[in-house]
Amino acid sequence: MIEVETADRLSVDHDELVGFVAKIFAGRGVPADRAALAARALVYGDAAGLGSHGLANLTRLYLPLFDDRRVAPAADPTVVADRGAAAVVDAQRTLGLWTASAMLDDAAERAARHGVGVCFVRNATHFGCAGFHTRAQALRGRVALLSSNCGAQRIARPPGGRYAMLGTNPLSIAAPAGGADPFVLDMSTTAVPTGKIRAAARRGEPIPEGWLVDAAGEPTTDPAALDRGDGFPTWLGGRPETGAYKGYGLALLVEVLSALVSGAALGPDAAAFTGSGGPTGRDDDIGYFAMVIDPRALHGNSSMAPAAGAMFAALRDCAPIDPAHPVGYPGTREGERVRAAERDGIVLDAALWTEIMDVARAEGVDAPAGTLR
Amino acid sequence: MIEVETADRLSVDHDELVGFVAKIFAGRGVPADRAALAARALVYGDAAGLGSHGLANLTRLYLPLFDDRRVAPAADPTVVADRGAAAVVDAQRTLGLWTASAMLDDAAERAARHGVGVCFVRNATHFGCAGFHTRAQALRGRVALLSSNCGAQRIARPPGGRYAMLGTNPLSIAAPAGGADPFVLDMSTTAVPTGKIRAAARRGEPIPEGWLVDAAGEPTTDPAALDRGDGFPTWLGGRPETGAYKGYGLALLVEVLSALVSGAALGPDAAAFTGSGGPTGRDDDIGYFAMVIDPRALHGNSSMAPAAGAMFAALRDCAPIDPAHPVGYPGTREGERVRAAERDGIVLDAALWTEIMDVARAEGVDAPAGTLR
Fold first, then answer.
1. Half-sphere exposure of B368 toward its Cβ, with a 13 Å CA cutoff?
2. CA atoms within 13 A on the CB side of A89
3. Which of A60, A244, A263, B145 shows the smallest number of beta carbons within 10 Å?
4. Testing the interface with B: which of A171, A252, A273 to mutate, by most B Cβ within 10 A?
5. Which of A252, A253, A315 sits opposite B158 (nearest CB)?
6. What ipTM, to 2 d.p.?
7. What's the DSSP call for residue A59?
8. Nearest to A189 by CA among B243, B115, B7, B125
9. What is the Cα–Cα distance from A26 to A105, expressed in whole angstroms?
10. B134 and B146 in contact (C-beta within 8 Å)?
11. CB–CB of A86/A117 below 8 Å?
12. Which ranges of B275-371 does DSSP label H, i.e. alpha helix?
């Protein structure tokens, strides 16, 4: 085992790290094929530079879900209603890192027959990076949309309201871009996801204005306010005159598509009208909206690929204002990072490495080999 | 005819105004039933308080489309591909104020059979307020999504890019809220729609920081910069650290769903790499994404209405920070305004009233009666 100092950074082989995480999930009772997919989904966070949704969540989010039996590792999702192109599915608390990809695969089979396929999912758990799941569909030539509410977890307030009523409600779309890196948008409907706020809190650093407001609705740069219960994420759009109602509306779009239609737990509930207005509820019984469009089923031999390739190439080739900052589209940077991580390994800081060593010991799984960088 | 002064405001009966606009569209060759629906869609802008998408666009947008034969008033949309739940439709340049509702009605029939129905539409024209069309579905118990690109009209730049490549790409969702006003989100993916910027330019007023940037990417408060070609709409999210990439990504979501899949004209194109980077292209061959979800088809007798009613009531009933500003959700304010307009008439300012009188004379249609307010 490598002894590390606080300032050290280590590189770990991508596939070895995935194998390690898969063994941990399998040790918790997740069937091997699902564990392997879930491990890839989790490591994607670190590979794509979205560390707030990567390995750091193993000890903070996923292992506690197993400990508390809030995940049913070997259960099978059940179909509640099936209308061919669309189905309502009860995820039976399966591990969301796997479930979300499985639901998109199911929607893709529906789309192959009907042009479009949708799974409305209830009783699901946290799916990690939404973009991992949608990107996998785009790499197979499909357009995929995935959104999730946060069950009854309430941390963000309706504009002007005193009580937290909604989660950060992530939304992702991915589409093929000819032969180039797929277009992958993966966003919370708040200005930033909570992971970025908590990461700043752990580093003891202030956050930019525009991420959090205090109880009176005024901007705050103190990231610790979030978990103290007196800081509330700001909606995408910021102030009312620059579109706060749009971020809020998009969160409701996600709530409706993912949870209201599927019958999952909802954020907005009169049960939230308690105490100081701080966080209430828990992210159980999460709802997903998983939609796939199959261009081949719609267009037959008339491929969408040339138009997609030309469109995304035009964005990538657009001359920049500042030559040091080339133009891209959501997914280009992630694509480059994932390729580099698969080739050169994943770089982890000493704190995360130490966590992983501790997990390896506690779970009785051989730790991956690391190389000091 | 009432003589008006600049400062006057007039009230016009809602149904009379709709009948007047319907006669104008019918006079331009639009079949009577379509003309009536299109007139309601246009007047909805003024009724709901979204004046930038209301009657002001009759002379600025729709009549010129007829004059230039960019609208085919009596054509019939044709189905390019039909897979049951999903279809690709060529709108044949029919009047978008009608087409968008017709496409959602078509999607609703598909949804009644399959749970979900989608029309991917090419060769369409400007549909006015997206929320008019989706709201009509929500009033009938369905969830509806409608988005539109702007054909090859390019006015917004990718973050950091020198050339305008995309339109404002509107997106709407509506859902029933029990017996209350439906949830209706109707948003451009830029911070504000261009109509609001142009309205400020007509009034000679500066705009808030965060609506436009200049050629160098710096914020500008001069609304005239937009039509001079050296001002570019800001994406929803504002600065990079507060989510500009998300607004841009949502515009691409709309571009993919509405235009790439349907085969309509696309904004991002190497043809845009010309001149100073200002606007290029025209909003012909617009693409729509029109999706309807039918909860009855998915859930049978287990109605979604109680959960929807409770969810939106919780948002409406949330205690406000400032008692003078009650909490709502997108659609509550529009619902109140539409009811008031249907009851008390639509209030128009003198300039718009004068325009309408001129249109009545030019088109040979009796003007509606107005009452000074």
1. 27
2. 30
3. A60
4. A252
5. A315
6. 0.97
7. I
8. B243
9. 22
10. yes
11. yes
12. 295-299, 305-316, 332-344, 350-363
Give the torsion through C-alpha atoms of A3, A4, A5, A11, to 10 deg.
160
Per-residue pLDDT reduced to its tens digit, A10-29:
999 999 999 999 999 999 99
Q: How far is CA A274 from CA A165, A270, B250, in A?
A: 11, 9, 35
What is each CA distance from B216 to B165, B207, B231, B232, in whole angstroms? 16, 18, 9, 10
Alpha-carbon distance of A24 to B108, in angstroms, equals: 46
DSSP A312-345: HHHHHTSPBSSTTS----TTHHHHHHHHHHHHH-
* B 116-135 near A (Cβ less than 8 A): 116, 118, 120
**CA proximity to A170, closest of A210, A126, A135, A226:** A126
Residue A225 half-sphere exposure, CB side, CA atoms within 13 Å? Answer: 21
CATH class of the B77-190+235-341 domain in this structure = alpha beta
* CA dist., res. B214 & res. B275, Å (int): 15
Q: How far is A191 from chain B (nearest CA, A)?
A: 5
Distance, in Å, from the CA atom of B189 to the CA atom of A215, rounded to the nearest integer, reads 28
Hey, is the C-beta of A276 within 8 angstroms of any chain B C-beta? no
From the CB of residue A159, how many other CB atoms can be counted at a distance below 10 Å?
22
Tokens of A314: 């035009």
Residue-level pLDDT at B20: 98
pLDDT in tens, B230-283: 999 999 999 888 999 999 999 999 999 999 999 999 999 999 998 889 999 999
CA B53/CA A31 separation, integer angstroms? 54
Name the CATH topology of A75-190+235-344.
Answer: Ribosomal Protein S8; Chain: A, domain 1 (3.30.1370)
Average pLDDT in the A188-213 region? 92
And the tokens for B181?
């006003």
Residue B193 token pair: 């729609």
* Chain B touched by A343 (CB under 8 Å): no
Tell if the CB–CB gap between B270 and A85 is shorter than 8 Å. Answer: no
CA distance A251 to A170: 8
Nearest 5 degrees, angle CA A321-CA A326-CA A331? Answer: 130
Q: How many CA atoms lie within 13 A of B174 on its CB side?
A: 30
- How many of the other CB atoms lie within 10 Å of CB of A76? 11
Sheet holding B231-233, edge to edge: B219-220, B212-214, B231-233
Indicate the pTM of the whole model.
Answer: 0.97
Say which amino acid occupies B300: G
List of chain B residues whose C-beta atoms are within 8 Å of the C-beta of residue A81: 115, 298-300
Cβ–Cβ under 8 Å, residues B174 and B331: yes
Mutating which of A260, A294, A316, A329 best tests the B interface, going by the most B Cβ atoms within 10 A? A260
Three-state DSSP at A220 gives strand
- Residues B258, B99 contacting (CB under 8 angstroms): no
Those residues of chain B that have pLDDT short of 70 are: 1-3
Closest CA to A170 of A134, A137, A224, A138: A134
Q: How far apart are CA A91 and CA A88, in angstroms?
A: 10
Q: Is B330 on the interface with A (CB under 8 A)?
A: yes
Contacts B157 to A, Cβ<8 Å:
318
